[in-house]
Request: fold
Amino acid sequence: MIPLSSFRIVPNTTVDRSLTFGESAVRALEGALGDEIDLRTSFRIARSEITTWPDYCPTPLVEMSGLARDLGVQQLLYKDEGWRFGLSSFKAMGGGYAVSRIVARYAMESTHAANMTSKDLLSGRYSSATSQVTVTCATDGNHGRSVAWAAREFGCKSVIYMASIVSPFREQAMISLGAEVVRSQGNHEDAAAECRAAASERGWFVVSETENATEPAIAADTLAGYATIMSEVAKRLPSGEPPTHVFVQAGVGGLAATSAVFCGLQWPQERPRLVVVESDQADCILRSIEAGEPITVTGDLDTVMAGLAAGEVSSYAWSILRTGADYAMAIPDEAAVATMQLLATPQSGDTPVVAGESGVASLAAALLVLQNNAVREQLGITRAARILTIGTEGATDPEVYRRLVGLSPEEVMRRT
Ligand SMILES: Cc1ncc(COP(=O)(O)O)c(C=O)c1O
Reply:
């Protein structure tokens, strides 16, 4: 178990628990993205394309039976995105997929082809067209790595902007995937502004899930790619029964929003309660849910959960989470670190898992809730509960991992 640490959880008083939530969520997101987006088709195409990629393999859905037993619930699941395409994070499914679509659209336009699949692009036949494309983004690590990887795979160029504090390891990972990396002197917001300015001057494509940065079609593809993660979960549920509770972490909220839409469409009758988890240093969604409108968190957003260090919820995500999140929760760094350690050296007989700081946030939140009877009751968690958590990253920076866990990722893997 992890040491008890303080956390905040707030109920969403405007949550829509009706059977038609999935339909309304699709309409809300399409409304936010613009008329030309058909979200269900985007979800379907994303799944059919990503599953043809050469190294595609569903990531493990780890059943933590020992922890579940000790914490008194029927099931505790951890979707381990640490195994995604050798990139160690779920971001390949979003930004990576969006890059493939940008390149496909460009190649279709320039060759007048009626359709262009990932397979067509990967064959290299269209490389003279695809090499004209440059994709760009601002990143604190995972997103940029996925964009750089997909640019290499699908034959275009990438230029990645990073804040001054992003670790040299993360920078090197992008360079070795062929990206040009531009270091901003400032923070993430400065890097994002520089990225947008360069893109509009040079005709580059910004890969993002937020409205002020990118075209709606690119944001829609990013979100659609994430839906494939949830569809893998739905196909592999150990008991075949949907989770009763889903804990998912958020930065700008794209993954959480897509999870909410997916749950609404997939399990309208038994839609799981959705708990959106943030760092307590970057709790913009929690504050927005409390206020009933988007609230920006300012300050240095200094958290070890670097992927969650966002001060503002994306308006696309907000169009869903406003009524689709049941609870918002904010946890301290110490809970994330303790959960990384627990996964590396489990006490309950479960298999060790290598998981990164931002990746464990949803599991950390679930563990804190499960150890608190009053909150368990508030969330309706009984002994029959089936809890799903999304492990969004593995050891994306091995040095940081070793410092926080006391073991290297390889040492943990050897124990499995
Ligand atoms: C490991 C990890 N988990 C979660 C998130 C949050 O995703 P979102 O910004 O879609 O809410 C990020 C974002 O970069 C991340 O890197």
Notes: The first strand starts at residue 8 and ends at 11. The mean pLDDT is 95. Residues 8-83+218-414 form a domain with the Rossmann fold fold (CATH 3.40.50.1100).
